[in-house]
Design brief:
Layout lengths: L1 H7 L3 H17 L4 H20 L10 H13 L4 H20 L26 H15 L4 H16 L3 H5 L6 E2 L4 E5 L5 E5 L2 H13 L23 H15 L7 H14 L4 H8 L4 H4 L1 H17 L4
Antiparallel strand pairs: 1-2, 2-3
Helix pairs in contact: 2-3, 3-4, 3-5, 6-7, 6-10, 7-9, 7-11, 11-14
Length: 311
């Protein structure tokens, strides 16, 4: 209720464009409720700041006001990544407003986005990935359905690099074991087909046999189930991944996104072209995928320094 209350405190000439943009994100772009709420929070904050500067209509919001708002955010201790996200939200909003004829000039065109820190994501080395998957496979040999599920879950994460939201959203008929592909519904309700290998297929076959031990009337068509038989949630999936990564004892990688980073990096290390990896991961921008080339170069550099006599 907090976001709604703050939004309602805006002047009508500021609130109505915001509400129109939020409808556009939800209905026109198919963005998730979580994403829409994130935009709402960022833009409400910006418009409240502009209102304090005297704005009553969207056309009153200028570049100077936007810069003051970002400056206040920075002084409040927000991270560069958060500031970059918030400035991107503002640019999306004002660009939409220009297309809709609500603004004649886009005030955010020259709004500088704070640079993100260049920290590379933590990824597993190939031997660590093999060890992790061998460990969870060994745990599944006892036949416990949760252990079998976690083995299949980790194999699919590493084999496909899909997002945790995409994995828990999978249904039984999304998996084609004969073709070794999975149909994934990604961001913006965009569907893509992602291949997987023999180890993931073997784990899925075992899981589909063990799934009946957990299935209830609430299971429906969900591929992965929680202990009570309902569709596996994102939090439960993260816990399973975190437990497997902690058990390695020699990596800072954590969470499903680490396996997504790992899958992308190993694909590129193995010679996959950037466009193919972009399609597999469901990235809308090739620039996002290019992050993983930086990871691969860093690994190459580390190997060079360790091995070359003149390094």
């Amino acid at each position: 209720m907090g976001l709604v209350r703050d939004r309602q405190a805006l002047a009508l000439g500021l609130r109505e464009p915001l509400e129109g943009f939020l409808r556009y994100l939800s209905l026109g772009r198919g963005r998730s409720e979580h994403t829409v709420r994130a935009y709402e929070g960022d833009l409400t904050s910006m418009l409240e700041s502009a209102q304090q500067d005297g704005a009553r209509e969207l056309g009153d919001v200028g570049l100077a006001s936007l810069r003051r708002w970002l400056g206040k955010q920075s002084e409040g201790g927000l991270s560069r990544a958060t500031l970059a996200r918030r400035s991107a939200a503002v640019r999306s909003f004002t660009s939409w407003a220009v297309r809709e004829g609500l603004l004649d000039v886009d005030p955010a065109l020259r709004l500088a986005s704070p640079k993100r820190h260049g920290d590379l994501p933590d990824v597993l080395h190939e031997d660590q990935a093999r060890r992790m998957l061998s460990d969870v496979e060994a745990a599944a040999e006892g036949g416990d359905p949760v252990a079998v599920r976690d083995w299949a879950l980790l194999e699919v994460f590493y084999a496909t690099g899909i997002r945790v939201s995409e994995l828990v959203g999978l249904d039984l008929d999304d998996v084609d074991l004969s073709a070794r592909t999975v149909r994934v519904l990604g961001k913006g309700n965009k569907e893509r087909t992602v291949p997987f290998g023999v180890p993931a297929a073997n784990a899925l076959v075992r899981w589909m046999g063990a799934r009946t031990a957990l299935a209830t009337a609430a299971s429906g068509a969900a591929l992965f189930l929680g202990k009570r038989g309902g569709r596996l949630g994102q939090r439960q999936a993260r816990e399973s991944v975190d437990a497997a990564l902690r058990a390695l004892g020699d990596t800072a990688a954590s969470g499903p996104h680490a396996l997504r980073h790992t899958a992308a990096t190993h694909l590129l290390d193995g010679g996959a072209d950037l466009r193919s990896v972009q399609e597999l991961l469901g990235h809308s921008s090739l620039a996002t995928t290019q992050l993983y080339t930086h990871v691969s170069v860093e690994r190459l550099r580390a190997s060079y320094v360790q091995a070359h006599p003149r390094a």
